Amino acid sequence: MDRKTSSSHKPATHVDRLGMVAKRIAAGAALAGAALASTLALSAPAQALGTGPEAISTGSPCSVQGDLEGAFTASSQMPGYLKCVLPDVEAWIDYQYLDMPHPASYQFVPQGVSGTTPSGCAFDETSLAYCLGDQTVYLGESAVWKLYQGTGDAAPALVVAHEVTHHFQNYIGVGRATTANEQIRYENQADCGAGAFMAYARQQGLVDGNDDVRELATALVDVGESEGPHQSHGTVEQRVRSFYLAYSSSLRLPMAECIPFVPETPIIGAG
Fold first, then answer.
1. Topology with regard to the membrane (predicted)?
2. What confidence tens digit (pLDDT) does each residue in 192-221 have?
3. pLDDT tens digits, residue range 31-87?
4. Can you tell me the distance from the alpha carbon of 162 to that of 239, in angstroms, rounded to the nearest whole number?
5. Cα angle vertex 265, ends 263, 269, to 5°?
6. Is the dihedral of CA 12, 140, 27, 194 positive or negative?
7. Cβ distance 244 to 195 under 8 Å?
8. What is the distance between the alpha carbons of residues 29 and 8, in angstroms, rounded to a whole number?
């Protein structure tokens, strides 16, 4: 992802930038979902360790001009990375919705920190999750660094967009799954939402479609699930297809491509 100018966005009203990755994935696999190991956090550890999560300001300036790839060299620098990409995610929200409240906050969870929110959501350094109870996205230091270092600078931003799509689902009221298999369509829709964000980022000149998107395929191989009674996320094929449904769309608002996953409650106006 290239840093050009700061994106403008309206401030969050509810209690509630990307990258270029490696060039070694065949174009046919090009996609994203980028370690979209998202969970609507449930159970939690009994006690909190460390000082607690740190709120990442979406209004702070990015310290990098140009490509974010390789700009950060340690996991402890991931808050700086997030300050570069979160304003783009926030601008994307306002681009496609007229009155969508933003997530309450984006919380960075440093190594050694773990705990439970008052609403019952668990968090630690491996978290990549949206908490329904407090409408907050939790981003663990180890998880974000693993994506950034191992897959590329677009990958963590993709995950954020996936989680923010869960926020849209929550706010719009698309319903909640009662079994793991029922959750698959909501997760596929969130992968589709990540594709809509990447389409927006490409339109804004923030990503290189020949590098960023292609490289995300690496992570997808790891996060797709095999079919079975406990499957809650799509298979690799399903996640790739879901992402590309929106990413390759010619619609002004690619998110509209994601409606069929939960047609009874459209996630965005079809027009």
1. Single-pass membrane protein
2. 999 999 999 999 999 876 666 666 655 555
3. 333 333 344 333 333 334 558 999 999 999 999 998 999 999 999 999 999 999 999
4. 11
5. 90
6. negative
7. yes
8. 33
